[in-house]
Design goal:
Elements (H helix, E strand, L loop, with lengths): L4 H13 L7 H17 L8 H9 L1 H21 L1
Helix pairs in contact: 2-3, 2-4, 3-4
Length: 81
């Protein structure tokens, strides 16, 4: 079965985003909470967490987890105010 143009484009985007150092989903999810907190506070992301940011660019599943976590943190911040 041939790939649709949008599927080919997505594959090319992932290849372009690939870096020399990559982490897997397990490693990403271990650090995604720290990354999310810094991001929501508008603080700079340290070099050690740049690999999480990179992984979120190419992994739909981890990005979805990150977005859910981000929403939960925003809701928690509203309750605390």
């Amino acid at each position: 079965m041939p790939l649709a143009p949008h599927e080919i484009q997505k594959m090319l985007d992932v290849v372009r985003a690939t870096e020399t150092v990559e982490i897997d989903c397990d490693a990403c999810l271990l650090h995604v909470a720290e990354f999310a907190e810094l991001h929501l506070l508008g603080r700079p992301v340290p070099e050690a967490l740049k690999v999480v940011e990179q992984h979120l660019l190419i992994c739909d599943e981890c990005r979805e987890e990150y977005e859910i976590l981000g929403q939960a943190l925003l809701e928690l911040a509203k309750v605390r105010q």
